[in-house]
Amino acid sequence: MYLKTEKPPFYLIGLCVKTSPEHAGTQIPAHWERFYTENCLEKIPNRLNNTLYGVYTDYEGDFTKPYSLIIGTQVSSLSSIPEGMVGKEIPAQVYAEFETEGELPQAIFDKWCEIWEAPLERSYLSDFERYDGGVVSIYIGVK
Fold this sequence. Notes:
The protein is of the alpha+beta class. It has three helices and eight strands.
């Protein structure tokens, strides 16, 4: 079960990796490890808060094709992007919102398995995970 919600556009700065479904199982955990090891959050200027996002974007088709994952946080401006990071405007759109329950990261993987099977008419503009105080919400862009 999910809620539909409209979200305004927002800016994000973070660390980006291009991946695909066949490599995501190793690349995504390694990317999160790099984000924490390199203390990336502290390097991001103009942060609005410390809430982390995992933004899936630049899809080359549907969820079975390559895409980019940006791990970062919401910022007030893209005027200053640290070397090695990217800035992105996440467009306003309608999202199907899912809440995770259980032990992380397994709960996130389980919820994505549910999402992949759900009859959603996805936009493939952007999807994101929002990590806020131990609660992880997943937002899937829909048409």
